[in-house]
Amino acid sequence: MAEKVIRVDDIDGSEGGDVARRDFEILDRMFTIDLSDDNHKRLIEALETVALYIDKSAEVKRPGKGRKAPSQAKVKGYTNAEVREWAGRKGVEVPERGKISDEVYAAFIIDHPDAKPDA
């Protein structure tokens, strides 16, 4: 049994022997669409026009969240860097980055009478 495939132009809904699947790339992304020869010609012209503008433009990055502010130590008057430095001198294991355990903070406060827990 034979089957007949009829392609329909995705833009104007026309059918015809000239309607074909057309692949195109824009901004490093691939797309596909079914178009007649006339609509394919219009697409190519539009892409060429857009390419002129893109070639003369500069890309603008969307604003991101940026870098996080350095996390504050859980003790008033000291920074996490100071807590890490103290821990290193005492032989207490603490990660170079990331969360410092509550046990390390507690030991730091005991060793530093002027340090107050940050509520």
TrEMBL record:
Q: Which Pfam families match?
A: Lsr2 (PF11774), Lsr2_DNA-bd (PF23359)
Entry's transmembrane regions: none
Q: Name the domain of life.
A: Bacteria
Record domain Lsr2 dimerization: where: 1-49
Keyword DNA-binding tagged: yes
Domain Lsr2 DNA-binding, residue spans: 78-108
What GO annotations for molecular function exist for this entry? acyltransferase activity; DNA binding
Q: Which UniProt keywords apply?
A: DNA-binding
State the InterPro entries in the record: E3-bd_dom_sf, Lsr2-like_dimerization, Lsr2_dim_dom, Lsr2_DNA-bd
* Name of this protein: Lsr2 family protein
